Amino acid sequence: MTRIAIAGFQHETNTFTPGRAGMAEFEMADSWPALLTGTEVIEGTRGMNLPIAGFAAAAGVVPGLTLVPILWCAAEPSGPVTDDAFDVIVGRIVDGVRQAGAVDAVYLDLHGAMVTESLEDGEGELLRRLCDQVGPDLPVVVSLDLHANLTAEMVRHTNAICIYRTYPHLDMAETGARAFAALQAQLRGQRPAKAFRQVPYLVPLHAQHTGSDPARALYAGLDRFTDGPSTYAELALGFTAADIADAGPAIVAYAPSESEANRMADTVLADMLAVESRVDCTLLSPAVAVARAMAAPPGRPVVIADVQDNPGAGGTADTTGLLRALVDLGATGAILGLMHDPELARTAHHAGAGAVIAGAMGGRSGIPGDRPFIGQFRVETLSDGQCHYTGEMYGGGVATLGPSAVLRVIDGNSDVRVVVTSIRNQCLDRAQFTHFGLRPEAARIVCVKSTAHFRADFEPLAREILLVNAPGTFPCVLSDVVYKKLRPGVRLGPSAR
User: Fold this and answer.
1) CA 60 to CA 132: how far, in whole Å?
2) Which domain holds residue 75?
3) Do the beta carbons of residue 10 and residue 110 sit within 8 Å?
4) Per the CB 3.0–4.6 Å rule, which of 18, 115, 231, 265 could disulfide with 13?
């Protein structure tokens, strides 16, 4: 009987945003389930587009194999993970593996861009502590996010790494299944050589969309290296909102020989250098985007993405630059989501549906260049915020938004409705509007606080997609970012040559 211990610990850390992720943030449900332990790890993620679910599904059809689930948790992207939360969760994972008795391998579902109050490389330290417990011979295989900031420590303390290849991340469960295949090869005694390379320029996340070139071609090019579960190359495009030495794209390659692994890694690096000048980092001002959307013919909505206020990348989800442009320009048929403002949501619930309330919306985070939007709002819809996802990326899961409301701006001559929530949540699924009775396909303008994940569910209905440069704590104009810890010689995006 083969026994595999499995666990997950996910956090994407934005070092430019306020706040911390402590135990409470990992224990609560938000975009993903609350902290799971034991058999809940498998039962609570079954059928979801999550790596650990894909791993468990692939393992479940193999006779003579038993999974030993320990723990799985995730917190909405934010500022650093607290040292206390990190030590507690890592301790529970490492102790869980020890208490599991004799296991033949370990699989971990990680993100790859975790920064703690004291550590730049949270995953590298987790893997080091795990390997100190299990020793050098037990196979350790992990899956990572496409936005991982891959480090030498992560590569050193793992036998195999598998990385998402789509953004939006439609292949998370598939990546978990690939990790299971790589682990099976390890159990058969296939221990390939590995090579690691870092790319000398950063790619802003809005330019990492794998439905567009050059990212689309780069990931398609990885297929030419795959020759079974022990010979393949992986590319992580990095998470630019982490001010750490190892931020940015990186490559890991596996092959039967060191020379072959090095050749594969060098080829992918050459591919990255060849496309640098073709990376499109264009962003529009909110006013230009709204005017362009208003000038579009009716029939299909224009989708405007507030890419720098994406809570799925640590944004506060409460900036008002795009909202202000909609109102100032008299936009009609516009919906915007999701605005994080627990105080205003509470006021709306107290007033009740149909009431008119006055006060401030958003702008409560003190972000330079942003301020609250002061106005009057009609409460159109109220909800407890338990929203069932319906789109391809998160379908089957539940968004926990907390007490929420649709508020219509009634000042001026605009027609703008805003979905206001009590819990930060990236707007990446049409259900986050339809749950409240709004019909995005019938809107003239749909505004989302998201960087690219929204494309999976909103692109099919969009006449056009516009990305805007409004204030936010998730920086996409990298030339404006002051990095203090980034390793020397790394260019801040393709335009910073």
Assistant:
1) 29
2) 2-278
3) yes
4) 115
Q: Is a pLDDT exceeding 80 seen at residue 392?
A: yes
Backbone angles phi, psi at 419, to 5 degrees: -85, 115
Token pair 């891959």 in the structure block, residue: 150
Residues 452 and 316 in one domain: yes
Average confidence score pLDDT of the chain: 96
Length of the chain: 497
How far is the CA of 325 from the CAs of 308, 311, 417, in angstroms? 15, 20, 13
pLDDT digit string (tens) for 321-351? 999 999 999 999 999 999 999 999 999 999 9
Q: In this structure, are 253 and 303 located in the same domain?
A: no
Residue with tokens 């019909």: 439
Q: What is the CATH number for 103?
A: 3.40.50.360
**In the structure, what pLDDT confidence band is assigned to residue 495 with cuts at 50, 70 and 90?**
low
Q: How far apart, in whole angstroms, are the C-alpha atoms of residue 146 and residue 71?
A: 22
Same structural domain, 219 and 325: no
The reported pTM is: 0.96
191 lies in some domain: yes
Query: For residue 497, is pLDDT > 60?
Result: no
Q: What phi, psi does 199 have (nearest 5°)?
A: -95, 140
For residues 195-202, average pLDDT = 98
**What one-letter code names the amino acid at 14?**
N
* Dist CA 71 CA 84 (whole Å): 17
259: left (phi over 0), alpha (psi -120 to 50) or beta: alpha
* Angle, CA 259 vertex, CA 258 and CA 260 arms, to 5°: 90
Examine the fold and report which residue of 278, 303, 324 is the final residue of a domain before the chain moves on. 278
Name the 3-class secondary structure at 348: helix
The model's pLDDT over 250-274, given as tens digits with 9 standing for 90+, comes to 999 999 999 999 999 999 999 999 9
Distance, CA of 382 to CA of 273 (rounded, Å):
50
Same-domain pairing of 133 and 248: yes
- CA 465, 471, 477, 483 torsion-angle sign: negative
Residues contacting 261, CB < 8 A, separation 6+: 192, 193, 194, 195, 253, 254, 255
- Find the Cα–Cα–Cα–Cα dihedral 325, 329, 335, 339, rounded to 10°: 20
d(CA 247, CA 243): 7
* Peptide linkage before 214 cis (omega within 30 of 0): yes
Same domain, 319 and 199: no
Phi-psi region of 19 (alpha: psi -120 to 50; beta: other; left: phi over 0): left
Same domain, 199 and 165: yes
Q: What is the pLDDT of residues 445-481, one digit of tens each?
A: 999 999 999 999 999 999 999 999 999 999 999 999 9
50 with 138, same domain: the answer is: yes
Looking at the domain assignment, is residue 486 inside a domain? no
Question: Smallest Cα–Cα separation from 396: which of 176, 173, 179, 75?
Answer: 173
CA-derived radius of gyration, the chain: 23
